[in-house]
Amino acid sequence: MDSFNKSYLPQKFLTVAVENLRLRAFIGFQPWEREKLQDVIISFSFKYDGALASAEDNVKHAVNYKPLTKQIIKLVDRQHFDLVEAMAEAIYESILHFHPEIQDIEVCLEKPHALRFADNVLIRISQKDRYNYAVISLGSNIDPEQNFPKALNRLKDIGIIVHRTDFVKTKPLKFEDQPDFLNGAVLLLTSLNHTTLQLKLKQIEAILGRVRSENKNAPREIDLDILTFNNHILDKTELEELPFLKDFVAHLRPDLV
Description:
The protein has 257 residues and is an alpha+beta fold. It has helices at residues 51-56, 65-76, 84-96, 144-156, 194-207, 236-241, 243-252; strands at residues 13-27, 37-49, 80-81, 103-112, 120-126, 132-140, 160-164, 168-170, 181-190, 223-229, 232-233.
């Protein structure tokens, strides 16, 4: 099959689910008390854009659930946790950090016979109940003094701006025959998943007058890009090519650079 360019493929989100992973762990006891091992049952699911993986029938384009499952087994099996809540949180974080395209995570942790008159106790974690952290870059060289405040107001409609960088003037680097840019970035707390956030940013760009052309580096009213989402840098190459973007990430998420 000929190689596909993902940018030309319509998104095809699919759900991957692993159900009833049966492990044993020490919960609320010291790990050397072997007789206190308790059964736990773990189920988890997530979504990702499987268009390219399906088109090319190639695991390198998929979010591979096998190493993720092995990672969770290593995290939980015969390990010690004081609370099942802490175990569920560790599983959630492990999935969240596994791959940048994972979204809509659901985790269910069961502890059978934890109560005398109940079959089990369940802990559920849903990414839909949590906020995501995104570093959003802003760039403009067409009326930037007017378009930056407009863009910031629009961003406030889709999340909470918890921190921002200084706004700085930069020379155009890839297409030099155009005015200087005003650039900056914000740390946005949002309930939107990565895909929906991307679509909302494109919508804001269109509302503020950006018209896309064949020249991707042409002057623009506003340019809004996701630099990081949760604990993932989305395009490390771009950060190396545009050092001021790396400085923005270092300022807003120093733990990632």
